[in-house]
Amino acid sequence: MSQTVDRALSILPLLAEGPADLGQVADRLGVHKSTALRLLRTLHEHGLVYRQSDQRYRLGARLFALAQEAMENLDVREIAHAHLVRLNEQCGHTVHLAVYEENEVLYIDKVESRYPVRMYSRIGKPVAITVAAVAKLLLADLPEHERRALAEKLDYPMYTPRSTPHAAAFLQELAKVREQGWATDLGGHEESINCVAAPISGADGRVVAAMSVSAPNVVVTADELLTLLPLVRRTADAISGEYSGRTPAEPK
After folding, report:
1. I want to staple 212 with a disulfide (CB 3.0 to 4.6 A). Which of 8, 190, 197, 222 is the partner?
2. In 10 A of CB 58, how many CB atoms?
3. What positions does the domain IclR-ED occupy (predicted)?
4. What is the pLDDT of residues 135-179, one digit of tens each?
5. Are 88 and 95 in contact (CB under 8 A)?
6. Hey, how many other C-beta atoms are within 10 angstroms of the C-beta on 14?
C-alpha cells in the first residue's frame, strides 16, 4: 500500500512540470502502463489530476483549491511563536513579529525583553512604516511598481536625524534590503533603540511576515546587536521552513 501511495504522489511533481501522457507517466514511475493508468484514474476521481482532450494529464483544480485552503488556514503567528520565545531566551532582547495588511505594517506578536528597560510597542499597533526594520523587509518584497506607488504616498516624519527623509531615500533603502535579505533600524525611530530583522517566506518565496530583535543602547550597542543577525536569520529560516512545509514542526 505504501508503495502505491508513493507512486501516486510521485505523479504530482511530474505533472507540475507540464502535461504528460500515459507513457511518460509510466516511464517516470518505472511501471507498466496499466499500473500508471490505475493510479491516474484514482487521482482523477479525487480531482487531483485532469485528463485533457489530447489524452494528456495535468494537475487538477482540486489540488490548487486544497493548496489555497491550506494557505488561508495557516497562522504564521501560531507557527512562529515558539521560535520567537526560543530566540528571546537565547538573546534576552525584545522580539517582534509583523505583517503587512492594507497598507499598514502591524505587530502581531511580541516577546518582552528580560531587561528592565523595555520597548513601548503593542500587538496590533502599526509600526513606523518608513523606518522600522520589519516594514522595510515587508515592503521591499512588493513588486517594483507597488513599492514606488506606496513610497510616493507616504509621509516621512523625521523622528530622529537618522529617519528616512523622502521617497527616493526610502526606495533606495528598500532596494538594498531586497538585495541583502535583512534590514536594520539603527536609531531611525527612537535614537536610543536599535533593531535587526529578517524575513519569513512562504512556499512561493514571497515574504509573509518579518521578525526582529530590538534593544536600547543602554543594554547593547548597535554593533553588539548586529552580531545577533545570524541567529535572527536562522530563526526566520526555521519559521519559514515550518510555515511553508519544507521542514517538520519542532516539538513544542
Report:
1. 197
2. 14
3. 62-245
4. 999 999 999 999 999 999 999 999 999 999 999 999 999 999 999
5. yes
6. 16
Residue type, 90: Q
Q: How far apart are CA 11 and CA 43, in angstroms?
A: 9
Contact at 8 Å (CB) between 213 and 172? no
CA distance 248 to 130: 35
- 119, 113 contact by CB (below 8 A): yes
Rounded mean pLDDT of the chain? 90
State the cell numbers at 111: 516577546
Dig out the grid coordinates for 57 from the structure: 494529464
Taking the CA atoms of 148, 154, 156 and 159 in sequence, report the sign of the dihedral they define.
negative
Q: Reduced to 3 states, what is the DSSP secondary structure of residue 31?
A: coil
**What is the per-residue pLDDT for 94?**
94
Among candidates 210, 241, 202, 238, which has minimal Cα distance to 70? 202
Q: Is the pLDDT at 252 greater than 50, yes or no?
A: no
Non-local (6+) Cβ contacts of 157 within 8 A are 128, 130, 163
Span 60-106, pLDDT tens digits: 888 877 766 655 545 888 899 999 999 999 999 999 999 998 788 99
0.85 surpassed by pTM: no
Nearest alpha carbon to residue 151 among 120, 172, 132, 137? 172
For residue 58, give the C-alpha cell: 495535468
Interatomic CA distance for residues 185 and 77, integer angstroms: 22
Asked if 209 and 99 count as a contact pair (C-beta separation under 8 A), the reply is yes
